Amino acid sequence: MGKTLSIIKPDGVAQGLIGEVIKRLENNGLKIICMKMLTMTKDQAESFYEVHKEKPFFESLTYFMTSGSIVVMVLEGENAIAKYREIMGATNYREAAEGTIRRDFATDIEKNIVHGSDSPKTAAFEIGFFFSSFEVTG
Ligand code: IDP
Ligand code: MG
């Protein structure tokens, strides 16, 4: 069993897509084992996206991620990281496969509805960023 971190980004929450995203996760065999809603500060967003700090989109991305409430979840399941990335679709919604969350709802390469960890190492960092080990019991 693997774990991954999922975020419904401010655009997803603002568009009323919390239920739709959760339905797709559950329909695909991903179990939600932790969940909360919060609004990140700019400092928190910058720490969370530290790996992207040299990218030209870093400032815009971290500002966007503080622009409204987000829903943060830990998902558990077989190949959870890869499976969730498949359900999300490619970063650029124009390249995302049909039926993926980003293809169906994203409006921009930045405003792409959801976040998902990309490796076991980043999943461990990202889960620990939002949840304590006491909360992540599965
Ligand atoms: P991912 O979310 O599919 O893992 P990353 O490359 O890790 O994609 O980028 C993190 C986030 O940064 C993306 O989800 C998107 O919101 C934003 N982003 C990525 N590439 C660009 C870009 O070229 N322009 C603007 N925003 C971008
Ligand atoms: Mg990424």
SSE sequence, one letter per element: EHHEHHEHHEH
What is the fourth-level CATH superfamily? Answer: Nucleoside diphosphate kinase-like domain
**Spatial extent as radius of gyration:** 14 Å
Counting helices, strands and paired strands, the structural category is alpha+beta
Small-molecule binders: inosine-5'-diphosphate, magnesium ion
CATH topology, anyone?
Answer: Alpha-Beta Plaits
% residues in beta strands: 15-25%
Q: Report the helical percentage.
A: 25-40%
Mean pLDDT: 97
Indicate the CATH class: Alpha Beta
Give the biggest sheet: 4 strands, antiparallel
Structure explained in plain terms:
The chain is of the alpha+beta class and 138 residues long. Helices cover 39% and strands 19% of the residues. It has 7 helices and 4 strands; from the N terminus they run E-H-H-E-H-H-E-H-H-E-H. The chain has helices at residues 10-14, 18-27, 42-48, 58-64, 80-88, 101-105, 120-130, and strands at 2-8, 31-38, 70-77, 114-116. The protein has a 4-stranded antiparallel beta sheet. The chain is globular, with a radius of gyration of 14 Å. The structure holds inosine-5'-diphosphate and magnesium ion (MG). Residues 52, 57, 61, 91, 109-110, 112, 115, 118 line the site of inosine-5'-diphosphate.
Question: How would you sum up this structure in a few lines?
Answer:
This protein has 138 residues and is α+β, with helices and mostly antiparallel strands. The chain has one domain (2-6, 17-130): Alpha-Beta Plaits. It has 7 helices and 4 strands; from the N terminus they run βααβααβααβα.
